[in-house]
């Protein structure tokens, strides 16, 4: 990137405006595409984190809620439901008191 900026400055000093404009356009496109790729990568990473975050449906005070793993209090009833239809049926456990 720095080499391109130096080349653009040298082109400007030598009076080669066409080369300078092309080099600056390349630098600009590179910066824009790099920013877009970074934003997309961060969004993908956030999606993967949400997909891999261990959660469970738990029953607290008679209401079913989704709770992060490790946040289960003693006596909480939590249920596991299979992701695929071919898996065994759902199972429920009560956290030890």
Explain how this protein is built.
Helix 1 (about 1-15) packs antiparallel against helix 2. It contains two helices and four strands, in the order ααββββ. With about 100 residues, the protein is of the alpha+beta class. The chain has a four-stranded antiparallel sheet with strand order 2-1-3-4, with no helix packed on it. A hairpin with a 2-residue loop joins strand 1 and strand 2. It is rod-shaped, with a radius of gyration of 28 Å.
Quick summary:
51% of the residues lie in helices and 21% in strands. The chain has 97 residues and is of the alpha+beta class.
Write the layout of secondary structure elements.
Blueprint: H1 2-14, H2 17-52, E1 55-60, E2 63-68, E3 77-80, E4 91-94
Antiparallel strand pairs: 1-2, 1-3, 3-4
Helix pairs in contact: 1-2
User: How much of the sequence is in beta strands?
Assistant: 15-25%
Radius of gyration: 28 Å
Q: How many separate helices?
A: 2
Sheet with the most strands: spatial strand order: 2-1-3-4
Q: What is the helix/strand order? A: HHEEEE
- What summary fits the major beta sheet? 4 strands, antiparallel
Low-confidence stretches: none
- Principal-axes shape call: rod-shaped
Average pLDDT, all residues: 81
Structural class: alpha+beta
Helix content: 40-55%
Q: What's the end-to-end separation, in Å? A: 61 Å
DSSP strand tally: 4
Q: Can you tag this structure with a few keywords?
A:
97 residues, alpha+beta, 51% helix, 21% strand, rod-shaped
């Amino acid at each position: 990137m720095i080499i391109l900026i130096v080349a653009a400055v040298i082109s400007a000093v030598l009076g080669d405006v066409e080369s300078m404009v092309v080099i600056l356009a390349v630098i600009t496109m590179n910066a824009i595409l790099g920013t877009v790729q970074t934003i997309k990568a961060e969004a993908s990473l956030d999606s993967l984190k949400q997909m891999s975050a261990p959660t469970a449906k738990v029953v607290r005070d008679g209401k079913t809620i989704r709770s992060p793993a490790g946040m289960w209090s003693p006596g909480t009833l939590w249920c596991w439901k299979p992701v695929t239809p071919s898996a065994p049926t759902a199972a429920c456990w009560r956290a030890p008191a």
